[in-house]
Amino acid sequence: MKKYSTQEFIDGIKDGNRMLLSRAITLIESAKPEHQDKAQEIIEGCLPFAGNSIRMGITGVPGVGKSTFIESFGNYVIKEQGRKLAVLAVDPSSSRTKGSILGDKTRMETLSNNPDAYIRPTPTAGSLGGVARSTRETITLCEAAGYNTILIETVGVGQSETAVHSMVDFFLLLMLAGAGDELQGIKRGIMEMADSIVINKADAGNQDAAKRAVSEYKNALHLFPPTESGWIPRVTTASALENKGIKEVWDIVDEFIRHNRAKGYLEKKRKEQSVYWLNESIQYELNQAFYGDKNLASKLDQYKKDVQEGRISSYKAARELLRLFRKA
Amino acid sequence: MKKYSTQEFIDGIKDGNRMLLSRAITLIESAKPEHQDKAQEIIEGCLPFAGNSIRMGITGVPGVGKSTFIESFGNYVIKEQGRKLAVLAVDPSSSRTKGSILGDKTRMETLSNNPDAYIRPTPTAGSLGGVARSTRETITLCEAAGYNTILIETVGVGQSETAVHSMVDFFLLLMLAGAGDELQGIKRGIMEMADSIVINKADAGNQDAAKRAVSEYKNALHLFPPTESGWIPRVTTASALENKGIKEVWDIVDEFIRHNRAKGYLEKKRKEQSVYWLNESIQYELNQAFYGDKNLASKLDQYKKDVQEGRISSYKAARELLRLFRKA
Question: CB–CB of B223 and A182 under 8 A?
Fold first, then answer.
């Protein structure tokens, strides 16, 4: 395989070369220090050309129809809005072999064959912190490559939503109509992140239930306080299968972006996100240094047992561990 | 002022000596290293006698009637349940001079004069991390002093709820009946922490509105997934002013404790909380070391600006800062 220079990578990405984009993302996802160093140089080179996109997060429990929705929604924004779409994923639990989230491009057949769409499965392994960082850096490369709509998929079962929420402009929650227990499986707090809730699978025969769900969620959202920008989360229905309600979802995204851009909240939020990720990265590095310290590992285990059994206070244990850490 | 030895402190606290308890808490709250060291010794000495209490968190926006409720509830558990009560507070924004949360014992007049109640205002200053740690260590001393009901008050406006939630067995949210916007001012996510919601000020003339609020909240809570232990948050009304509904709140607490104790969730949760606070303390100490490093401060500011303006990636900035930190 030909070895490309950093500059060749940067130029290729800016030209929309998908092969070079993919290989650069692989460098981002690699754990090897020399790959990491090269990846960082490529990111630095792409940064001046990044930022000009609408970044969307999308979540929902398995079975809600995320792939079908993304296929339908993606085709709409490309064909009807003339946009270029990149689809990424954050799912630390996934692996390609298990065939989970975005693991199988064939589930988005039309989209994956569209030259204006770029689909990248989630990295195969790693901690949430690592996967989230990779994805965030991948956004930069995709934007530099001209994708002006970034869609980041995640599963509605854990902290990955918080990570995705912290890297997007707009957060969409896909739900199903059902009897009372619609939120089953959705982790507490996720509903409160949503800028819009879409009741999916509002197919023929299921529309009444979907409409009831809409009014239930509107009532529930009503109980939450308004967001800083004054945006009230929208609830709507869609049938990705029948291609219905898709334009309406885009209209909500569009309205949200215009609303927040006009008031300066879009830029403000992105700057806050940058500082958030700087601090997250600092935490990550500090934790790597501390928890990765092999000499500390057995001490840490012992202190854990001691605090659980009430033999030492958490604070004193932490202070003693830190003393050992800083001495090393 | 007489100087007491560590052993005198420990023995006095175990004997229920309130003066020594108060002075030991003052040592916990002190920033002076020699006070801290002594405080840690006292805590170590008290740990074997701690743990045997029901720990309750209570929150709600200013105006919801927290002080009156605590007064009423506290008198009930002391007189009718024969318990001993300690009331603590976590409110990093408060200060005694501003007369905020628990700043004025006169707001709980009967309770503060009751020999079976111990009321401790929130520490006057400090970061949330510092205040939370002080409060958590104060729980240990209060338990060793024989208080078997610990009530930790906080205000419903920020991260302090998460901190309190992580140190209690049971979390109570006080609300007011109102037209649709009951959650106004309550930070997103707090409702989902509640093991019970009490609509306070269900006084004569306000009972219908309170009953409507109960059914609204029951509906909203219904949309949330069940907790691990299978406990479904209870919604009830109370009039602290008229001393109504107070027994019912205690019955809920009692049922919750029995439910969770029987299933082993109470002990499991406490062990998880201990490890949580060990890791929190480690984070706190790591952050103190990093963000307190004077040589790094100006570098950090510069990197913040750079990531905001997109001149460097968050990750690269963090790595460079860490390199500087570890070299020092």
Answer: yes
